[in-house]
Amino acid sequence: MLAMFGSIGMAMIILACALPAYNSWWPIFVVLFYLICPLPTRIAKLPHNADDSLRAAHAMFATIGIVMSSFALPIVLARAEVIQWGACLLTLAGNVGAYGTMLAFFFGFESSESGMW
Predict the structure, then answer these.
(1) How far apart are the first and last CA of the chain?
(2) How confident is the model at residue 84 (pLDDT cuts 50, 70, 90)?
(3) pTM of the model
(4) Where exactly are the transmembrane stretches of this chain (predicted)?
């Protein structure tokens, strides 16, 4: 199921770029946000001597900022008339699919003994 939803999300983003009606590859830049989204959490889980709750809060704040940026980028591009609104909506739907897949993976497969959250 995770692979299916992730594939549907990526297919929507590729369609937002490749359909002849839209013909702009700017929406593909949201994939960079997908790649850097798990990094703050992974960095915060590294062993440190600092307060764990503070590291968790900073990691959550950075992750939320990255996720919100991936939703804001297509809206800003559409308002600036760089891409069309249809491509924006397809990209936003692809974001929901991709982040839903990531969220399901982290809640489904991460160990609850880690003590991070």
Answers:
(1) 25
(2) very high
(3) 0.84
(4) 12-36, 56-77, 89-109
